[in-house]
Amino acid sequence: MRTATTAMSVGLLCAALAACGSNSEAVSETVQGATSAPTPAPSKSEQPSTDDPQVGGGLTYAAPPDDPMALGEAWQWSSTTRSGTKGTGTTAVLAYKQNMPPKVADEDLRYDQVKVRICSTTGTPITVYRRFFALIKPSGEVNTVKMVAPDPRTAFPSKDTILKPGQCTEGTIDFLGVRSEQPVLAVWGPDGAPKPAAWVISQ
């Protein structure tokens, strides 16, 4: 069952990430229509900077592992620009937990929080965004609805961040979820990757 869910999720992820802004609004409206209680507002859609070296350089990534990784396990990726310049780094989803959103009357709403880390090791600098992360529900649906961080001090940067070799960035990302449906996978699908890397969230 998990293998089938993973395959379906990979096919849906790219389209879902591309429509992140409109998807956030649609899901938010659905939640608000189901309850009269106030709901948290999703963060604004995050768009890449026009100075992004990944876009200008045509950055592509080698394929991630076929099987989902365990939480805490790092994907040691390699990248190549259009001009042939190479780079390496690591990405990991470190942990997952469900939190109660602040000041919300609906007892079923939750924040599905993942802690992630991205490092640039050698070569070409990379630009990282929260928008490349998503969660996969048991049904295979992709959740890209990211919330304003309850604690900005521990949050993954919400704006594009350029990492040079030897630099890392780490923090939490909160997705709007419900108590009764815990996600089964966390995924990272940057521009230029042939498919997203995935991490299993234990049930």
Describe the structure.
This protein is of the alpha+beta class. Helices cover 18% and strands 35% of the residues. The chain is built from three helices and twelve strands, in the order αααββββββββββββ. A five-stranded antiparallel beta sheet has the order 1-3-4-5-10, with no helix packed on it. Strands 2-12-11-7-8 form a five-stranded mixed beta sheet. Residues 31-52 have a biased composition (Polar residues). Residues 1-18 form the signal peptide. Keywords: Signal. This is Lipoprotein.
Weakly predicted, low-confidence segments? 1-12, 14-38, 47-56
* Proportion of beta-strand residues: 25-35%
How many domains?
A: 1
| CATH A-level architecture | Sandwich
Shape: globular
Q: Strands of the biggest beta sheet: in what spatial order?
A: 1-3-4-5-10
Quote the distance from N terminus to C terminus.
13 Å
Q: How large is the count of helical segments?
A: 3
Main sheet properties: 5 strands, antiparallel
CATH topology name: Immunoglobulin-like
Structural class: alpha+beta
Organism: Streptomyces laculatispora
Keywords: Signal
Biased composition (Polar residues): 31-52
Signal peptide: 1-18
What's this entry about, in short?
The chain is 18% helix and 35% strand. It has 203 residues and is of the alpha+beta class.
Helix-strand layout with pairing:
Elements: H1 2-18, H2 20-34, H3 53-57, E1 60-61, E2 69-70, E3 74-80, E4 86-99, E5 109-123, E6 126-128, E7 133-136, E8 142-143, E9 161-163, E10 168-178, E11 185-188, E12 197-200
Parallel strand pairs: 2-12
Antiparallel strand pairs: 1-3, 3-4, 4-5, 5-10, 6-9, 7-8, 7-11, 11-12
